[in-house]
Design a protein that fits this description.
- Chain B: It comes from Streptomyces kunmingensis.
- Chain B: Pfam families: STAS_2.
- Chain B: This is STAS domain-containing protein.
- The complex is a heterodimer of chains A (about 300) and B (about 100).
- In chain A, about 40% of the residues lie in helices and about 25% in strands.
- Chain A is of the alpha/beta class.
- In chain A, the strands form 2 sheets. In chain A, strands 1, 2, 3, 4, 5, 6, 7 and 8 form an 8-stranded mixed β-sheet that branches. A 5-stranded antiparallel β-sheet of chain A has the order 9-10-11-13-12, with helices on one face.
- Chain A is elongated.
- With about 100 residues, chain B is an alpha/beta fold.
- Chain B has one domain (about 5-90): STAS domain (Transcription Regulator spoIIAA, 2-Layer Sandwich).
- Chain B contains 3 helices and 4 strands, in the order βαβαβαβ.
- Chain B has helices at about 20-30, 50-60, 75-85; strands at about 5-15, 35-45, 65-70, 90.
- In chain B, helix 1 (about 20-30) packs parallel to helix 2 (about 50-60).
- The longest helix of chain B has 12 residues, at about 50-60.
- The two termini of chain B are about 15 Å apart.
- The relative contact order of chain B is 0.21.
- The interface between A and B is medium-sized, with 23 and 21 residues.
Chain lengths: ~300, ~100
């Protein structure tokens, strides 16, 4: 069953497209109509698609906030706070209209669960807000399972130019379905930490990351993320935890495990006002990392995998 | 630190030293003068809670007063850039 309040001001359609022509037909009129209505417009899509829209808009492209999603939204966990909310909140009292394409054919198996959870959480993060977020899906290159998930994460879907309600819409269930166990390789180095060893463990983890090939310019961000996750365990999750590090393909991955339960689905995706003291910890991790995966259950506690491109 | 008011801090600002850092900042905001210098060249690391305490203290300064950071560690500069860019109460001293 699905119930939608007819007064819900937030609109979140998926746009299924087969080719460039359908892409432009589904996106450019959306942008032009919004500009004509005087609404603020942002387009955050992968570079080649961004170029298509920019070229088609011509001079009017200057009126649109354009972002390459493969950079701004590399880590799907930061798209809500740093791309969508950041844009919508900078135009208070007006209806933000955004094209957001977080899922493209090059997304990896490790990235996908975080991407689809992000799509589901948009509905929660924007509930009750005056905004429209249109999400294009490339039906030629994406798997059928990805398109099936798009029906679960979007209340409406536009296909062949026609918009219809999705009977499969169930974003909370999807977030739970992708709360999957994370695997750790046998060779990963490991350390247990408590309050007294936080600084030493953070420093050692950062040295290991350097040994695994993480570049100098990323080590500061890595150290900040490790500090935040390990301090969280000590302050909020039983006073101790275990940290592991390894490298996989192009990434250095740091795992932090503790006995806490992460039961706030929007943790790390809210923007606290700048005078507020707390509430930025997981947001910081989302902002600096290239990917964050989380598995959390009452029985097993919380495991977080933080990926940094090396 | 002659001729200007300030504080020199050394070591790292993280969970074991937060209480000390918060007390130091509470004293700093009560000082007179338009600019208060924090000499941070011997600080090796500042975590998010440490940066937050500084940013909140700076936002509580009144009447155009400001904190001047002298050679902050990269961790602190990065956190200020990410969450508190262009805070009027914080100035980074030219190197």
């Amino acid at each position: 069953m699905r119930t939608v309040s007819i007064t819900e001001p937030f609109d979140h359609p998926a746009l299924f497209y087969r080719d460039e022509q359908e892409y432009l037909a589904g996106t450019v009129p959306f942008v032009r109509d919004a500009l004509d209505a005087g609404d603020p417009v942002a387009v955050a899509v992968p570079g080649p698609n961004l170029a298509l829209i920019r070229d088609e808009l011509g001079e009017r492209a200057a009126e649109v906030h354009l972002l390459d999603m493969t950079r701004a939204g590399r880590n799907p966990g930061r798209i809500i706070p740093r791309v969508l909310r950041a844009f919508a909140d900078s135009h208070p009292g007006r209806r933000a209209r955004i094209i957001g394409e977080p899922i493209w054919a090059g997304r990896t198996e490790a990235e996908y669960p975080a991407c689809v959870q992000h799509e589901a959480l948009i509905n929660l993060a924007f509930q009750g807000r005056e905004a429209t977020i249109l999400c294009p899906y490339d039906t030629t290159r994406l798997d059928a399972s990805v398109l099936a998930d798009a029906y679960v994460t979007h209340p409406t879907v536009i296909e062949s130019g026609t918009q219809a309600d999705s009977s499969a819409y169930a974003p909370e269930a999807l977030v739970a379905r992708y709360n999957q166990p994370l695997s750790t390789p046998l060779g990963a180095v490991s350390m247990v930490y408590t309050a007294g060893t936080l600084p030493a463990v953070r420093q050692q983890a950062t040295r290991w990351a350097a040994d695994l090939g993480l570049g100098e310019h990323r080590l500061d961000d890595f150290e900040l993320a490790v500090a935040e996750l390990t301090t969280n365990s000590v302050v909020h999750a039983g006073g101790e935890g275990t940290l592991r590090i390894w490298a996989e393909d192009q990434h250095v991955i740091c795992e932090v495990h503790d006995s806490g339960l992460l039961d706030d689905p929007l943790a790390g995706r809210r923007l606290p006002p700048r005078e507020q003291r707390g509430g930025r910890g997981l947001l910081l991790v989302n902002v600096v990392a290239d990917l964050v995966r989380v598995h959390s259950t009452p029985a097993l506690g919380t495991t977080t995998h933080v990926y940094f491109h090396r | 630190m002659t001729g200007r008011s300030g504080l020199k801090v050394a070591g790292e600002i993280s969970l074991p030293t937060h209480a000390l850092w918060e007390r130091a900042l509470a004293r700093v905001v009560q000082q007179d003068g338009r600019a208060y210098h924090l000499e941070l060249s011997a600080v090796t690391f500042v975590d998010l809670a440490g940066a937050t305490a500084l940013a909140v203290a700076a936002q509580n300064l009144d009447g155009g007063r400001r904190l001047v950071l002298d050679r902050p560690p990269t961790s602190l500069s990065r956190l200020l850039e990410l969450f508190w860019p262009d805070l009027p109460g914080i100035e980074v001293a030219p190197a």
